[in-house]
Design a protein that fits this description.
The chain has 210 residues and is mainly β. The chain has a single domain, classed as Lipid/polyisoprenoid-binding, YceI-like (Lipocalin, Beta Barrel), CATH 2.40.128. 6% of the residues lie in helices and 46% in strands. The protein has helices at residues 89-96, 156-159; strands spanning 28-31, 40-46, 51-56, 59-65, 74-80, 108-121, 125-136, 139-152, 166-178, 196-208. Strands 1-4-5-6-7-8-9-10-2-3 form a 10-stranded antiparallel sheet, with no helix packed on it.
Length: 210
Amino acid sequence: MKIRPVSLTLTVLSLTLASLSVGQAKPVTFDFKDPKEVNNVVFQLDAPLEAINGTANGITGTVTVDPENPAKTKGRIVVATDSLTVPNSVMRGHMLGKKWLDAKAHPKITFDIKSISAVKKSKTTGSAQVTGTFTLHGVSKEITVEARVTHLPDKLGERSGGKMEGDLLVIRSKFTINRSDYKIQPGENTDKVSEEIEISLSIAGAAPRK
């Protein structure tokens, strides 16, 4: 499969571990279920006759990072298939229907982190190559994406309106997949539905302080 890592946040993670406070010896788990529904994925398809732009905000999952051993970062990011939407309601119905994504049969799109490499870090931000298993339309493929991660100590209070205290982990990433690799109408309707799907991720995970 042809993956073109660019600069996703789908995340993940371990690069910022170096930015977690030195005193944190225990692994820290960040929860990406966002009550404000600000976390989002943007997908774009640019075919010769039509361009399709959509979003998804049904994002959940957790990522656990070990400040003393970033390479052991583990986690899963989940996107609810039926949360994908486009401006045209008829097109959305087709997209989620049996011929395309078949949201009822395949209700989740997931990314499971396997390994992290090429880590580059500064004080509070970092980037890395994140390898994991990406599952879409019931098909799982190992892919590698570039993720940019920002650790925001003590910022959970600002995001939650003072309801919780703790840290935030923000992940941004952009990568491209080919729908044929995931058995989504391979080779069909390419004049209106591009084979390549560009995915952009921007999500924040919370680690409440107990």
